[in-house]
Each structure stands twice: as structure tokens, then as C-alpha cells.
Design a protein that fits this description.
Elements lengths: L12 H15 L3 H8 L3 H12 L7 E5 L5 H10 L3 E6 L2 H12 L7 E6 L12 E7 L8 H11 E12 L5 H23 L2 H13 L3 H10 L3 E8 L4 E7 L3
Function: Methyltransferase required for the conversion of demethylmenaquinol (DMKH2) to menaquinol (MKH2).
GO biological process, one term: methylation
EC number: 2.1.1.163
């Protein structure tokens, strides 16, 4: 089933895919500044937590899905020093920013390749990667079950999917404050920094429509993953899920 990622309701996939391309191609060069400002710097702690949870060794071949401007790719490179990282994204303009960072030495010598890839139709062979990383990606995919099945397919047995995504604070008061922040401040910061307020109205709606921690874990299990765990950050505003492809 494909959905409208802004509402969670069934809809043709191209509605969401084209919207995501339009938004992120236009804000690519300002996306990193928005992340830093809108999260008050907390995104760095989320990435650090992601690395603590990620079972990635020095000999690993890593696939970064929805790699965008390279935040996760270069964090993995610096923290884990794997053999190779394949940084992929649906939007080439985002990857252009990542390529520039790579040229400036952001990967600290780790080999990184870049390619435009729709994660719902991954063009790589079965069992070809030791680990998959993904941040803020699955929420923007209209065919999420298909995407998770594709990730499962290209992972080697025993490999891990490590997913950072916005989630649902368990505490009722914190959840209400976060809901206010999403509705009013995310579009404000987005409009101020990038000039595209409506793109961030979409971002806010997509976060509210996305399943909670248990819901995402269930989707992963449905795709075949086992030993699915998650850890909340900033009171559950974000969560890192780790899911294993069984041997």
C-alpha cells in the first residue's frame, strides 16, 4: 500500500515522491542550517546515540539510505571507519552538498560513493551490505513496507538496519509541547531559514502522521527483521531503532 506521507492515508505514491523531490531540491543548500537551528543542536546528540547503537565494524560495507547532505555518512566514517559507504538519496541536489563535503575531507579517508536511489526500489544485489543507516528517511517514503523489504533484501544475514527518525514522546505533557512546536515553530524556522514555509508545514504534518516507536518496530518485523530495539532521545522526539536480518 502507498500513502500520502503528510497524512498517513492511502494515496498514489507519486504524490508524496514528487513533493519530497520538490521540497528538498529547493532547500538542499540550507538544510543543514535548518537542522542545527530547529533542533537547538540536539541532532548532534541523536547522531552520536545512533553511532553508539550501530553495530558497524571496520571491515563493513555500509549503505546510507536517504543520506541527504551526508550527515550520517560522515558521522559513520568518523566514528566507525568502515571499508566503504554508499551514500544514496532520492534528491541529487542534496547529494551535491554531500559530495562537496566529501571533497573537503569530511569522510577522513573512508571511501564514499554517491548515487541517486529510490529506497523503495534499491538497485543493488541481494545480501550486499553489512549495515544500512537511515535518518529521517522512511517517514518520507509513500511505500514504506516495500522500502523496508528492499533494505532487508540487500542486507547480509546478521546485518543491521540502524534508523534515526522523529517519533512520539511517551510523556503526555512533553507530547503536547512538541505538538505545538511542530505546528507553529517548525514552519516558522523553515520559512525564516530557507524561504519555503510550506515545505516545513509538510515536514510538521509528516512527523505527526508517522507511527510511534512501537509502530515502526512492527513495520520492521513485518519486513522480516528480528531483535528490533529502540532508544528514545530528547524525551522521545527522536528514536533510534536497530533491526537485525537473521542468519
Amino acid at each position: 500500500m502507498s500513502i500520502d506521507t503528510a497524512t498517513g492515508k492511502e494515496a498514489p505514491a507519486d504524490i508524496s515522491s514528487e513533493r519530497v523531490k520538490d521540497i528538498f531540491s529547493s532547500i538542499a543548500k540550507k538544510y543543514e542550517r535548518f537542522n542545527a537551528v530547529s533542533s537547538f543542536g540536539a541532532y548532534k546528540a541523536w547522531l552520536a546515540g545512533m553511532m553508539r547503537q550501530a553495530p558497524i565494524g571496520a571491515d563493513a560495507d555500509v549503505l546510507d539510505i536517504a543520506g541527504g547532505t551526508g550527515d550520517v555518512t560522515f558521522t559513520v566514517a568518523r566514528a566507525k571507519h568502515p571499508r566503504h559507504i554508499q551514500c544514496t538519496d532520492l534528491v541529487d541536489e542534496m547529494l551535491d552538498v554531500a559530495r562537496a563535503h566529501y571533497a573537503d575531507g569530511a569522510a577522513e579517508g573512508v571511501l564514499v560513493d554517491f548515487e541517486v536511489v529510490d529506497a523503495q526500489h534499491i538497485p543493488y544485489a541481494d545480501a550486499s551490505y553489512d549495515a544500512i543507516t537511515m535518518a529521517y528517511g522512511i517517514r518520507n517514503m509513500p511505500e514504506r513496507d516495500q522500502a523496508l523489504s528492499e533494505m532487508f533484501r540487500v542486507l547480509k544475514p546478521g546485518g543491521a538496519l540502524v534508523c534515526l527518525e522523529f517519533s512520539t514522546p511517551p510523556n503526555r505533557v512533553w507530547r503536547a509541547l512538541y505538538s505545538f512546536y511542530l505546528k507553529h515553530l517548525i514552519p516558522f524556522w523553515g520559512g525564516l531559514i530557507t524561504g519555503d514555509r510550506e515545505g516545513f508545514v509538510y515536514l510538521s504534518r509528516s512527523i505527526k502522521a508517522f507511527p510511534d516507536q512501537r509502530g515502526l518496530a512492527t513495520m520492521m518485523e513485518k519486513a522480516g527483521f528480528t531483535d528490533v530495539t529502540w532508544k528514545n532521545y530528547t524525551g522521545g522526539i527522536a528514536a533510534v531503532h536497530v533491526a537485525i536480518k537473521p542468519h
